[in-house]
Amino acid sequence: MSSDEPSDDPTDELAGDGDADRERTSSGVEDDPTASGGGREPVPTAGATTGRKHCISCGEDISADAAVCPECGVNQSRVPGSAGPGRTADEKYCTNCGAVINREAEMCPECGTTQTVGISGEKDKLAAALIAIFLGGLGIHKFYLGDNRMGVIYLCFFWTGIPALLGLIEGIIYLTKTDEEFQWRYVTD
């Protein structure tokens, strides 16, 4: 094929373009990496490039793989139910940028990072207590809280009446705990 004949290969068009800074994307649209603006770049997840994140309770910079904050001692898999330094009980810190955000926020309004902590996994203390009081003999409250092994044990021994008594006691204990303590102690991930 001579250089005067047109080619069906789209990569051949780039070879003679003469502009090294421009590239043709798979959709055929030119992309200039030196141009400013033009769209929002994706935000990396917390700790993706640095190996660091912010504590959800105190906002301190901690290791991305830390399960518990070394500064405040809070478990990083659950959002604390009480107020902390620089935030109210309805707020938490963004794990990526450290900004104070709403406790139920799915995305940080400051940096755009998706929040994975505190969105799911929390169980209602009152529901667990009522299930334990009325259906504790069958171990339903244990299944509700994610402790399937104990749920099966309660179910196997329901005919003795002992699980019903334990369920009543556990239901009362659940009601005496704070929401944060209940989540930390009884909810199994």
From TrEMBL:
Q: Which UniProt keywords apply?
A: Membrane, Transmembrane, Transmembrane helix
| Name the UniProt record assigns to this protein | TM2 domain-containing protein
Keyword Transferase in the entry? The reply is no
Q: Name one Pfam family in it.
A: TM2
Is the DNA-binding keyword given for this protein? no
Identify the GO cellular component terms for this protein: membrane
Q: What is its main location?
A: membrane
Q: State the superkingdom.
A: Archaea
* Localization, UniProt: Membrane
According to the record, the segments passing through the membrane are 126-145, 151-175
UniProt topology in membrane? Multi-pass membrane protein
Bias (Acidic residues) ranges: 1-18
- Locate the region Disordered: 1-51
Q: List residues of the DZANK-type domain.
A: 55-112
| Organism name | Halorarum halophilum
Domain TM2: start-end pairs: 122-172
